Each structure stands twice: as C-alpha cells, then as structure tokens.
C-alpha cells in the first residue's frame, strides 16, 4: 500500500493543501493520504489555533474524501514536531506501507534544513508540488536529495494560511479559500479573531 503524508500546521487548512494532496494521490496512485498536523513546527512560531482545533478543521475539510484520513500522532506527542521522529515511530506499526511525504515548493527548497534529512530520505520519498512565490529547482538541491523528490502537477493556488488569518483578523471574507465546513468551524469556535455573528 502507498500512503501520502500531508504534513503541515494547517492553521487553518485551505484549498491549496487539499489540491496538493489530491494531485499527489492522482499522479502517483496513492491508496490513501494522511493529513498530519504538527504540534509545534520546527521553523515557525507557535500556531494560532490549538492543535485540537487544527485537527478538527482538517477532519471537517477531508470528511467527504474516501481516501483521506487524519493522523494525530504529532499533536498527541506534543513538543516540537520533527518529521524524522514521526516517521521512525510509524514505520514500526506500518511495515508494509510505502510512505511519500507531500510538500509544496517552499518546503522543497527548505528540505536541506530539515532535522535528520539525510536519514529521512532513506525512509521515504517526497512528492513536491508547485506553489506561487517559490521556484522548484530540483537540480539545486544537495546530491543526497537527487531522485528523492518526485513532482506532481497541480493547479497553482496562491493562498496561504497566513493570508487567511490576516483576512479574518481584518474583517474580510475567506469564502472559497477554505471549504464551507472549515469556514463554519472557524465561525462556530470564533477562531482567528473573526467577528462574532458574521455569516458572509
Ligand atoms: P502558513 O502561511 O501559516 O505557513 P501555509 O499556507 O504555508 O501556512 P502550511 O501548513 O505551512 O500552510 O503548509 C503545509 C504544507 O502545504 C507545506 O508543505 C506547504 O508547502 C504546502 N502548501 C501550503 N499552501 C500551499 C499552496 N497554496 N500550494 C501548494 N502547496 C501548499
Ligand atoms: Mg507554510
């Protein structure tokens, strides 16, 4: 069985994440994609929404896809989430599964800085997707990453969670940037400084 892991902060999950996961699944015949919110990402400040809410929003966003699942391992473990720790932990329980980690172009360029990356590339491959604002140049990666990053085509979506948080905090709509179910979740829980009672 081939499984894609879609890691991220998902603060909140948006359609760029969903399209990336679907493009990877479709291009490489993945049986499932597991969406795995990090607890504290190594390269970021603390997240805006709690781990529980970020996981809740992911669950809402993917509920209608027959092949998408959530994986709460990093939220449960707590602390800073290093992919190398996670992959070592899950490999023991899923020995028959071939794992592929799905990442956008900004993360592809950041791969050399990942904790334990030289060990990680021997445990799984990466599927990279394009993202506006970041150039995908696999040849520029260090030699140990050559052949380890496969590319999937996706419609380019210039949306980030940062932009969504800023729009909510300043009273703007995020409709169609996230699924209706995620927008409802944000309203219901009053996340990201959204004005109470807004329905647009
Ligand atoms: P933030 O602005 O908070 O960093 P983000 O939109 O970058 O949020 P993350 O949770 O940091 O979302 O990203 C998780 C993964 O999804 C990363 O590998 C990232 O490259 C990828 N990704 C996020 N947005 C897009 C997008 N619009 N197109 C392609 N890949 C994306
Ligand atoms: Mg990001």
UniProtKB/TrEMBL annotation:
The keyword Nucleotidyltransferase applies. Pathway: Cofactor biosynthesis; NAD(+) biosynthesis; deamido-NAD(+) from nicotinate D-ribonucleotide: step 1/1. The keyword Protein biosynthesis does not apply. Residues 5-167 form the Cytidyltransferase-like domain. It comes from the Bacteria. It catalyses: nicotinate beta-D-ribonucleotide + ATP + H(+) = deamido-NAD(+) + diphosphate. Its EC number is 2.7.7.18. CDD domains: NMNAT (cd02165). It is an enzyme of class 2 (transferase). Keywords: ATP-binding, NAD, Nucleotide-binding, Nucleotidyltransferase, Pyridine nucleotide biosynthesis, Transferase. InterPro entries: Cyt_trans-like, NadD/NMNAT, Rossmann-like_a/b/a_fold. Pfam families: CTP_transf_like. One of its GO terms (biological process) is NAD+ biosynthetic process. GO terms for molecular function: ATP binding; nicotinate-nucleotide adenylyltransferase activity. Belongs to the NadD family. Catalyzes the reversible adenylation of nicotinate mononucleotide (NaMN) to nicotinic acid adenine dinucleotide (NaAD). This is Probable nicotinate-nucleotide adenylyltransferase. It comes from Paenibacillus azoreducens. The gene is nadD_2.
